[in-house]
Write a structure and sequence with these properties.
Structural class of chain B: alpha+beta
Distance between the termini of chain A: 33 Å
Number of domains of chain B: 2
Largest sheet of chain B: 6 strands, mixed
Number of helices of chain A: 15
Family (chain B): Belongs to the ABC transporter superfamily.
Helix content of chain B: 10-25%
Helix content of chain A: over 70%
Pfam families (chain B): ABC_tran, TOBE_2
Distance between the termini of chain B: 37 Å
Organism (chain B): Azospirillum aestuarii
Radius of gyration of chain B: 24 Å
Shape of chain B: elongated
Oligomer: heterodimer
CATH topology of the largest domain in chain B: Rossmann fold
CATH class of the largest domain in chain A: Mainly Alpha
CATH topology of the largest domain in chain A: MetI-like fold
Number of strands of chain B: 20
Number of helices of chain B: 8
CATH architecture of the largest domain in chain B: 3-Layer(aba) Sandwich
Keywords (chain B): ATP-binding, Cell inner membrane, Cell membrane, Membrane, Nucleotide-binding, Sugar transport, Translocase, Transport
Protein name (chain B): Sn-glycerol-3-phosphate import ATP-binding protein UgpC
CATH architecture of the largest domain in chain A: Orthogonal Bundle
Strand content of chain B: 25-35%
Number of strands of chain A: 0
């Protein structure tokens, strides 16, 4: 690129356009399915069902969203109202995100700042769980949760997902960048471990907490397998589960228009979180100045 | 306002002994500089006084109270760190006030103390700023302000000027000296910079390999270095050290090439014994023809006020001569150089300790 800039007349403009074209192509590939979803949510079920969905908005938008939002009876298939599912998803995503942050920041604080016997053993135990995806331990976890009577409850939905090695590691790495002298200055100032945590470590971690919150909220919102196992009643369904259940299974046709509307609604909270917290998120990822 | 007493203080990391028994009493209001090369244990010693390192053996007392088992916050000390260690998310005011808040001082008192420190350090305009919005020198002042507001029994400085550029360092050095004179608080100051040590200290403790090589006023340390190590460490360029031997009567010493120096006080007891002869570059004088040393000039450094001449004796030994004024000779020339008898330092050839004179 520098060579092009040094000699702009030898096709420099063209060379600048190539990356833009590639980026635009990428955006199109990403955005087109979403566009189709949004358009689909504005047509009636019959139009979509015929298989040739127009690429321009239809007139059924308000009807579709209203019925997806609050009615449990579509034209063809039963479904849980989206407002209930969205609420469930929101509770799950928030509890998981905040719970993960709370647990992992405390354990990272212990691992990074304290010298205690078996410190590295504990650290490695946390580290190793990174290699165990949820799916591997899902049967025993289900057994435990079922025995505790937590099926169909928010507790059962969230608690097993709260422990987070990733967040613990991220916080630990960040804590290791806090200079020893700062810890020592606080010691001389008379700040105990808890005081130092609240007065110094937490404020310094703000941007990291924000960045993690964005990532973990989306992680929680998009959970599929675990809620699928743990929720039985319609009242506990999350929106990701709900969408798949709305797809008809052959006996009845599918209300594609409602599914599209539900999908669009399901996308909004993560988008809102990203947009609202974008500034913090980027700062948390790139900011080295604390 | 207190004394600091170190009584056979030792520190070991496993089998490695970092501090090998340091004894020193720092008087009330005294400015003691711990000076030594990196790794000599000076910072460790300071951190032991602060309570940031445990004490393996011996006793440390501050204001007559043994503090071995006390937490840093209970030792009544304040410390200034090399990298300032300011709380990045707090304003200058909060940085200075934090320790006082923790100790539960009333708000008005905190306000008053911070205001006073800010006035002394000329930080009044910056109280609302964050450390990241300050220059290095200002940050250093905030770090000192944080120490001042505590009104401690002793200040501990751990190379506080090492992160500043040369000009600012000189300026801050003067400020620290003034501040300490004004506040009269007992201070321990760690540095590897001999100029800082010479200018700031009431007394210097020169350390090497965890041992106190010498304790004395800056001029004592300069004029009567207790060992070859001190002689080489204090003074720039360092002292010339030559192998020599007492003559048969102990009246003088002779270099291998035969050049002889008469001693101010004869040492018949040392007759014929080998010796290390030290003479500072600035005490050597270029003479018109009868100087006992013949130096072939290798390199001339013109510093403006001084000229430093690097040369060789006929037997190949290096010799540095520092003379006031502009260059007076060129590479390849030979000079006749002499030294007055009282500028000669004699050290034991084996132990490196200064011979009593």
């Amino acid at each position: 690129m520098t060579r092009d800039r040094a000699n702009p007349r030898s096709g420099g403009r063209l060379m600048d356009m190539v990356p833009h074209l590639i980026l635009m192509l990428g955006v199109l590939i990403f955005a087109f399915p979403i566009y189709v979803t949004v358009i689909g949510s504005t047509w009636d079920a019959a139009t979509i069902g015929r298989g040739n969905l127009p690429l321009t908005p239809g007139g059924e938008m308000l009807n579709n969203y209203a019925s997806a939002w609050s009615e449990s009876q579509g034209n063809r298939v039963m479904h849980t109202p989206v407002r209930i599912m969205m609420w469930n998803s929101l509770v799950m995503a928030l509890v998981i995100a905040l719970g993960k942050i709370a647990i992992s920041i405390i354990s990272a604080y212990a691992v990074a700042f304290f010298r205690f016997p078996l410190r590295m053993v504990f650290f490695w135990m946390i580290f190793i769980t990174l290699m165990l995806p949820v799916e591997v331990r899902i049967i025993p976890t289900y057994e435990v949760v079922a025995n505790l009577g937590l099926i169909d409850s928010y507790a059962g939905l969230t608690i097993p997902l709260i422990a987070s090695a990733t967040a613990t590691l991220l916080f630990r790495q960040f804590f290791l960048t806090i200079p020893d002298e700062l810890v020592e200055a606080a010691k001389i100032d008379g700040a105990g471990a808890l005081r130092f945590f609240v007065d110094v470590v937490l404020p310094l971690s703000r941007t990291n907490i924000a960045a993690l919150f964005v990532i973990l909220f989306i992680y929680g919102w998009n959970q599929y397998l675990w809620p699928l196992l743990i929720t039985n009643s319609a009242e506990m369904e999350t929106v990701v589960i709900g969408i798949t259940k709305m797809i008809g299974n052959g006996e009845a046709a599918t209300d594609w228009n409602l599914i599209m509307a539900t999908t669009v609604l399901a996308m909004l909270p993560p988008v809102a979180v990203v947009v609202l917290m974008q500034r913090w998120f980027v700062k948390g990822l790139v900011d080295s100045e604390k | 306002m207190a004394t600091v007493d170190l009584n056979r203080v030792r520190k070991s990391y496993g089998a490695v002994e970092a501090i090998k028994g340091i004894d020193i009493g720092v008087a009330d209001g005294e400015f003691l500089v711990l000076l030594g090369p990196s790794g000599c244990g000076k910072s460790t010693l300071l951190r032991m006084v602060a309570g940031l390192e445990s004490i393996t053996g011996g006793e440390i007392a501050i204001g007559g109270r043994v503090v071995n088992g006390l937490e840093p916050k209970d030792r009544d000390i304040a410390m200034v760190f090399q990298n300032y260690a300011l709380y990045p998310h707090m304003s200058v005011f909060d940085n200075m006030a934090y320790g006082l808040k923790i100790r539960g001082l009333p708000k008005a008192e905190i306000q008053a103390r911070v205001a006073k420190a800010a006035e002394i350090l000329e930080l009044g305009r910056f109280l609302d700023r964050r450390p990241s919005q300050l220059s290095g020198g200002q940050r250093q002042r905030v770090a000192m302000g944080r120490a001042i507001v505590r009104e401690p029994a002793a200040f501990l400085f751990d190379e506080p000027l090492s992160n500043l550029d040369a000009k600012l360092r000189t300026q801050m050095r003067v400020e620290i000296k003034r501040l300490q004179d004004r506040l009269g608080i007992t201070s321990l100051y760690v540095t590897h910079d001999q100029v800082e040590a010479m200018t700031l200290a009431d007394r210097i403790l020169v350390m090497n390999h965890g041992v106190a090589e010498q304790v004395g006023t800056p001029l004592e340390v300069y004029q009567r270095p207790a060992s070859l190590f001190v002689a080489g460490f204090i003074g720039s360029p360092p002292m010339n050290v030559l192998d020599a031997r007492f003559d048969a009567a102990g009246q003088g010493v002779a270099l291998p090439g035969g050049t002889a120096f008469l001693l101010p006080r004869p040492r018949p007891d040392m007759a014929g014994r080998p010796i290390k002869l030290g003479v500072r570059p600035e005490h050597l004088a270029v003479t018109s023809g009868d100087g006992p040393l013949i130096v072939t000039v290798d390199l001339v450094e013109a510093l403006g006020a001084d000229t430093v001449v690097y040369g060789r004796l006929p037997d190949g030994e290096g010799m540095v001569v520092r003379v006031a004024g502009l260059p007076f000779c060129r590479e390849g020339e030979t000079l006749r150089v002499g030294a007055p008898p009282d500028a000669l330092h004699l050290f034991d050839a084996e132990t490196g300790r200064r011979l009593a004179d």
